[in-house]
Amino acid sequence: MDEVPLHPTFRPETPGGMALAPGELHVWAVPLCGGNDGYATLLSAAEQERASRFRVADHRRRYAISHGALRAILAGYLGVDALALEFGTGPRGKPVLLADGGPQFNLSHSAQLALVAIGHGQALGVDLEKVRHLESLREIAGRHFSKSEFAALEGLPAADRLTAFYRCWTRKEAYVKALGTGLASSLDVFDVSLGETPSFVAFRAGNDAPADWSLFDVSPGPEYVGALAVRARGRTVRTMALLDG
Questions:
Q1: Contact at 8 Å (CB) between 112 and 4?
Q2: What is the DSSP string of 7-70?
Q3: Are 141 and 133 in contact (CB under 8 A)?
Q4: Using CA atoms, how far apart are residues 86 and 44, in angstroms rounded to an integer?
Q5: Which H/E stretch holds residue 203?
Q6: What is the DSSP letter of 197?
Q7: In this structure, how many other beta carbons lie within 10 angstroms of the beta carbon of residue 116?
Q8: What gap in Å lies between CA 116 and CA 97, rounded to an integer?
């Protein structure tokens, strides 16, 4: 399979070669092609069974590599065997690590790439999308974006709308993934920016406020758009590319 081109800010690293500094977030890009099949050997029996349910071989491969790589990355921070890790679910069904002092994490994958976000103490979510032409872009935005976001999208030159759409979508998805609610949440009750600089603009439901959250662009390559949301301020992000397993 062809390699996925990554931005040079995603520097190659191996699990265990990085430690989380105070106030730091890490985002790992995981190619789901090339020589990364070795990470699939780290799956638990339950994960292997789930992978076997995918009818399409490439979907099985992506699931196996991404979840095996997640185990390898988390094990590297904890200094334990990847197969010894145990996972559970939070109150809203979000996967959590069953380990004292273990980091928060979130996984997203699209096409031939995955992102794994790691941090300590704060709710975080990451979302990744491969940029594809969308015939129904306007209809999707009309259903899921807020009125102000939709108006901002409509006001852009036609050539800029596709990238802006994916920025808006991934930023909103990163937030609801941080909450653990996913698409069960209404995406139109809060606003995010659509430009190069990511930010929360407004919340119209719940107790959240823009000052409570940080939003980062973690797009790993020219064909992908990615976003990271964390319920904290003053955080920094380091980006890595996982070496072949």
A1: yes
A2: -TTSEEE-TTS--PPTTEEEEEEEESSTTGGGGGGG--HHHHHHHHT-SSHHHHHHHHHHHHHH
A3: no
A4: 9
A5: strand 200-203
A6: S
A7: 23
A8: 14
- Distance in angstroms (rounded) separating the CA atoms of residues 89 and 178: 13
pLDDT tens by residue, the chain, 245 residues: 468 999 999 999 999 988 999 999 999 999 998 777 889 899 999 999 999 999 998 899 999 999 999 999 999 999 999 999 999 988 777 889 997 778 999 999 999 999 999 999 889 999 999 999 999 999 999 999 999 999 999 999 999 999 999 999 999 999 999 998 765 567 889 999 999 999 999 998 888 899 999 999 999 999 999 999 999 999 999 999 998 76
Over the Cα atoms of the chain, what is R_g?
A: 18
CATH number at 11-242: 3.90.470.20
Continuous H helices in the chain: 45-52, 57-78, 137-144, 147-154, 161-179
- Give residue for tokens 């949440």: 185
Give the DSSP H or E segment for 215: strand 214-217
Angle in degrees, CA 56, 43, 27, rounded to 5: 90
